[in-house]
Prior knowledge:
MFS transporter, Growth Hormone, Chain: A, 14 helices, mainly alpha
Amino acid sequence: MASTAAPxxxxxxxxxxxxxxxxxxxxxxxxxxxxxxxxxxxxxLILLFAASxxxxxxxxxxxxxxxAKLIDVVTDPMVGVWSxxxxxPRGRRRPFLFWGAIMAxxxxxxxxxxxxxGSQYLTAAWLFIVLSFxxxxxxxxxxxYMAMPAxxxxxxxxxxxxxxxxxxxxxxxxxxxxxxxxxxxxxxxKTEAQSWAIVGLICAALIFASLMTAYYxxxxxxxxHGEGKSDKSNMTQLVEEFGAVKQNRHFLRLISVKFAxxxxxxxxxxxxxxxxxQSLGRDFNTLAIFGVxxxxxxxxxxxxxxxxxxxxxxxxxxxxxxxxxxxYALSWSLASEGEPIxxxxxxxxxxxxxxxxxxxxxxxxxxDIINADAERTGVRREGAFTALxxxxxxxxxxxxxxxxxxALSFAGFDNKLPFDVPQGGDVDTALLVxxxxxxxxxxxxxxxxxxxxxxxxxxxxxxxxxxxx
Length: 469
């Protein structure tokens, strides 16, 4: 394949290895607020909303969430390769951001205004449709968005820096999804369907504003040309692109780490609201305090970990974050009903360190892999790499609610009761497994897999024949 990877000339486009302007990092990163609010709002609330507000049996609710995510098996690779080959004066990626912003925001509103249709199966069918719409909108925006940093810069440490900016907005979006939403629901009445509809509409507006801000803020960002049109069929091109990506051993290692890690994160997310009110006997206001602590810790830790990675390497910084996450998960096994606020806040500070490192280091390493592949092959495949990476995120996001839904059904959870009425016994055990034991096991597996990752800064500093395949 012939490469056409040179950047499109622009008067103020930053050079490939130059330090990126603060405004560009801030503008691109701002889109992560909407993405984080969208993703965390869905993953953290959808099972509780479906099972306890819409009164869909937990196992059925988990199955619906899982099946809707299977759409990404088709859409992720299609959007990834499409954005790699798309040509536009606005760049390969930005047109996707425009339409994805509209669809993603609309889908959030539709999900949390889902009506109860008299039968749980009809309600589940409606929920499946709007969750599928959400999956498509999220894909159209997020895959091109996450591919953009690989085009913006080829500087090894600047890749970490731009993702540190993103991490700040991820944290703020998570704060709204994990704390702000809970406070509003507590105030409006967390067991009332109307309260959830109001929250859905407010969040949809915030998501749209954030995603469109990133679209306009990246208008003058450096971007690269794709290969353009080809005589090959779309299916042939897609198979070739992903065949090349799947042969990259560094990438395979990284997504295996992320799969294991995110399995723990997503089982925790699906069960966490239940765990707080059922097992700990705490309300959403206390959960909001936890969320604020996590956000503050994440914002403080992200730049510190970026600086630390310059001295000990990205892999070791990732180890630090992953190990912290295992300790955090295990700590919930020591919690009990009426857990003191100081203990909850301490855990929030701990997970903030883990969260910032897990996200920033993983995304920086992904960008390294993309640029190493481009140097070796002369072909830009940002979309293809990001599509597979994103699919792993979405697959775990589907498996988490599925596992927790079946665990709650097996434990005898009664979804006809208000969800803040403690049910104890097997329900508490199922929730503890979901937020502590499983995440700890998955975290250890992720650390073992990370030990085999080999791509380092030396591979970009003159040893380019080493480890780039």
